[in-house]
Amino acid sequence: MRHILVALLVALGFSGCFDSGDSNKKETKVEEKKELLFYCGITMVKPITEIAKIVEKKHNCKVRISQGGSRDLYKSLSTSKTGDLYLPGSKGYRDKNFKDGFLTDGVYVGFNQAAMVVQKGNPKGIKPDLNELKNQNYSVILCNPDSGSIGKHTKSILTKVDRNLYIDAYSNTASLTTDSRNLNKALKDKEADVVVNWLATSLWEENAPYMDVLRLDPKIAPKKKLVINLLSFSQNKEIAKDFMKIASSKQGQEIFHKYGFLDKEEIGSEAKWYK
Amino acid sequence: MVQVVKKNNSTLKKLILLLFIFVFGFISFIFTHLYFEDIIDSLDEEANYQKTRIEIGKFIVEDLTTIEAVFFRLSSTITTKYHDVLLKEMNKTIDNLKDALNVLEKGGSLKRKIKLNIAGNNEVTIETITLPKPSNNNFNLEVIDLRPKIDDILDTTSKLVALLNERALYVKNGDQDGACASLKSIDFFLKIAPTVFLRMKENANRLLYEGQREYKDINTKIENDKEVYLTTEMILLVTLFIAVILLGYIISRAINKDNQKIQDLNVNLEEKVALRTEEIESQKNELKDTLNNLKQTQDQLVESEKMAALGQLIAGVAHEVNTPLGAIKSSGSNIADYLDTLLSDLPKVFKILDQDEEQLFFKILNSSASNTKLLTTREERKIKKDIASKLDELGIEDSRSLSSKFLKLNVVENIEDYVPILNHEESDFILETTYQIASIISNTKNINTAVERASKIIFALKSFSRFDHSGEKIQTDIVENVETVLTIYHNQIKMGTELVRDYDDNLESMLCFPDELNQVWTNLIHNALQAMKDCSKILTVSIKKDGDYQIVSIGDSGSGIPEDIKDKIFHPFFTTKAAGEGSGLGLDIIKKIVEKHGGQISFDTQMDVGTTFHVRLPIK
Question: Would you call A9 an interface residue with chain B, using a CB distance cutoff of 8 Å?
Fold first, then answer.
C-alpha cells in the first residue's frame, strides 16, 4: 500500500511539474540570468549575434543587441551609461570618442571596406568611380553621414576625392538612409541604381542575388578596422571580455570571415588588442 | 478476537489511505489549478504590459510625426514671425515624447489630450494609460535609442532655424546671391536632416514591432500554457481517477477479504462461543453441584459443630445423670441391706418396748427423718463431744459410741429425754434398729433427691434439644433459655468455676428461635469455660434490658483474645484450637444466628483479664 502511495505521489508530482517550459519558475530563472547589452553597428549584427549565442550558452547569460548607426549607438551608450560592449562600423569612432572615457579595452575582429554597389548585372553600366554619384541619370542613395558608419565613411572618401564631390553626390541623392541595411534595401527595392555601402553586406546570401559590387581602389576606400570596445561602466566585464576573446579567437575569426569581414589569410592570426 | 481487531485496524488504515488519496488528489488539483492560473495571470499581466508599451509606442510615433510635421512646416516658413509658435508646439510635443519615454522606462501613467474636431464640440478627451513599473532591471532599448535622438531633433531644428534666419536676413538685405546660396544650403540640409526622424521612427517602429511580436508571443504562450494546463489537469484528473479507482478496487478487495475473514472468524467465534457456553454451562452445573456439596458440607459442618457441642454436653449430662443414679443405686442397696435385718428385728423391738419407750422410739425415728442440716466435720465432732458429755453426765456408758449413733439419728438435743431407751437392757438393739430404719428413711430421701436432680437434667436436656419445625419465632423467656444451657453445663461449671449471674428484674419474654439461641449460649459458655483452663475461673452471665433490646453477656476470666486475631474470630473456619478440636465455624454460626434475629454480637477483651461477648437481641 505504501508503494502505491509513493507511486501516486510521484505521478502527481510529474503531472504537476509538466509544462512547456514557460512556467513562472523558468521565467524567474531567465530573469535571474545576467543580461548584457551590446551596441552593435547594424552591419556587424550577424556575426555578433552568432558569437553572442556561444557566450550565452557558455555563461548562462542573455545578450541583448542594440543595433543602429554607430554614431547613434555611441550617443545612446554615452547618454544611458548602460551596456557592456560597443562595436562601431569603424575604428574611427573609438579614436574619436576614446577621450570621453567610456571606451576601454578594444580588440580587432575584422574590417569594413566601402564599395559602390549597383543593381545585379549593373544594367546602367555604372563605372567603379565615385564621380558617377554626381550623374543625375542615376538614382543615387547614400547613407546619412550623421548616423551610420557607412555614411560617415562615404562622406570621408567623397571629401577625400573632392570636397564638392561630397556636396554634389549628396545633392544628387534621391534620399538618404540611416544605415547599410537600408542601402541594401534600396537596391533590392529598385529605388537606387547605385549606393556606397560596406562591401561585406553585399556578399550575404540574402543580398547577393540583387546586387553587384563595384570595388574601389583601397587607396580611396581603405579597410576600416572593426574593433569591439569594452565599456567602462560595464557590470559584466568578465563575460564581456570573454566575448571579446571569443570574437577575436580563431572561432570568432571564422565567423567574421563567413560574413565577409575578414580575409581568409587573417584567420588564426593573433588579434590586436587596444588599451 | 485479537486477530479481528488487527484486521479492523488494517481495513481502517486502508480507508484512511483512500480518503487521504482523495484529499491529496483534490488538493493537488486545486494546487495545479492555482499554479497555472498564476502563470496565466502572470502572462496576462505581461501581455497587458506589452499592449500598453505598444500604445505608448504609438504615442511616440504620433509625437514624432507631429514633430516632423512641425519641422517641415518650420522649414517652409518664409518669415520668422511664426517660428516661435511652431517651436513652442514642437517643444510641447517633445515634452510629451519625453514623458512617454519616462513612463516606458520607469512605469507610470501617461495622459494625452485628444482634441475632438467635431462641430459644436470643443471638448478635450483625456486618455490615460498606465504602465506598471518594469519588474526587472532589463534594459529598455527603445528608451536608450530614442532619448539621445531628442537632442538630435533639437539640434537639427536649431540648425534649421539658423539657416532660415540667415536666408531671411539675406532676403531682407536684398542679397540675392546670399539668399540663393542660403536656399541651396537649406535644400542640402533638408536632404540630410529628415534622417533623424527616420531613425527615430525606425526605433519607435521597432518598439511597436517588438511589442507586437512579444504580445503575439505572449498570447501564443498563453494559449500554449492553457493547453498545457488543460492537458496537465486532464492527466492529473485521469491519474487521480485511475489511482482512486485502482486503490478503491484494491481496498474494496482487501475489505471484502477482511470481511470474509471476519465472517469466518465470526463463525469460528460462534462455534467457540457455543462450545464455551457449553463448557460454562457444564462448569456452572459443576459449580452448582460443588455449591450444593459445599452447602451440604457446610450443613454437615454446622451439624458436626452442633454434634460436637452436643457430644460435650452429653459427656457432662452423662456425668450429671450418673451421679444421682449412683446415689440411687447406693441408697437402694443400703435400704435392701437394712430391710433384710429390719424385717426380722422390728417385731422384736416392738415386743420389748413398752408404750413410753415405743413413743421415744418413734420420736427418734421422727428426728432422724426430719431434714438434717449438713454439718462440717468440726461441727460433727463438737456435737458428738457434747452428746458424749451429756451421756456421761447421765451416767450412760459407752457415751462415745452412742454419741455417733445419736448424731447419725439426728438426735442432738434433749438427750436426757431418751434415757429410758438408753437404760433399756436391749438399748443397743433398739438403737441399732432405730438407726437402720432412719438409714432407710435417709436413703429413701437420697433417692428422691437424686431422682429430682436427674429429672431436672433431663428436663433441661429436653428443653435444649427441643426443635421448632414451624420456622417461626416463638415467645421465649430468655432467662429460662440461658439457664437451660447453664443447667446442662452445671457439672462442668461446678468444678472450680464461680458462676456469677446478673439478671435484670424487668426482663421480658422475646420472639426468637430458642433452639438456635441455645446453640449460641452453648457455644459461648463452652468457649468461656475452655478459655479459663489455666486460671481463676469466673463465669459471668448477665442479661440486661436496653430499650427494645435485651443484651446477654457471657464473660470469662481467661487470657483474652490477642490483638492480631480480633478481626478474624468471626471468620468461618478460623480457630485457635488444635486440629480436630474445633471446626472454626462456631462463632461464624453464632454471628449468623444473631443476625438472623436482627441482633448484633460484639465482644470486649483484655489480655490476662478476660473476654465478654455481648449478644444484643431485639425483644420483638
Answer: yes
